[in-house]
Amino acid sequence: MISTLETAKDLELVPQFTPEIKGWGIDPKAFFMPSRSAYGNCRTLGYRAWRDNTKAHGLIWSSVQDSGANAILLFGDRLDPRCLVVTSSRSVRTDPTALGDLETAGQRAGWTIAK
């Protein structure tokens, strides 16, 4: 498991990256394919990770939509939402650069923000 936060209670996340996927005998290309046909298998692996790692707070894997980022799924029955805090935020109303950054991120993802 990977500890990802330096807080009073670190998040314990079960990694589901290529080495783990290969170790389970699964083709990573099929696992990380962004299609509805893969969802059932992903749910099954998520359930098994939840069942077999009773101290885990969730999963972490490589984002299919952004190869430079990770995706995280948290197990709602193991983590009190009050333990999660926003460490920083930016409002488009008060930060003139926030909307521009959102537009840039959207363009990378193929969507547009209408002003």
Structural commentary:
The protein is of the alpha+beta class. The chain has two domains: 2-80, no CATH class; 85-115, no CATH class. The protein is 31% helix and 14% strand. It is built from four helices and four strands; from the N terminus they run ββαααββα. It has helices at residues 18-23, 28-31, 39-52, 98-109, and strands at 2-3, 12-15, 58-62, 70-74. Strands 1-2-3-4 form a four-stranded mixed sheet, covered by helices on one side. The longest helix has 14 residues, at 39-52. It starts with a strand and ends in a 6-residue tail after the last helix. The model is unreliable at 1-8 (pLDDT under 50).
Integer-rounded radius of gyration: 17 Å
How far apart the termini lie comes to 43 Å
Helix vs. strand class: alpha+beta
Low-confidence stretches: 1-8
Secondary-structure element string: EEHHHEEH
As a percent range, the share of helical residues equals: 25-40%
Strand order of the largest sheet: 1-2-3-4
Silhouette: flat
Helical run tally? 4
Total tally of structural domains:
2
How many strand units? 4
- Portion of residues in beta strands equals 5-15%
Whole-number average pLDDT? 82
Major beta sheet summary:
4 strands, mixed
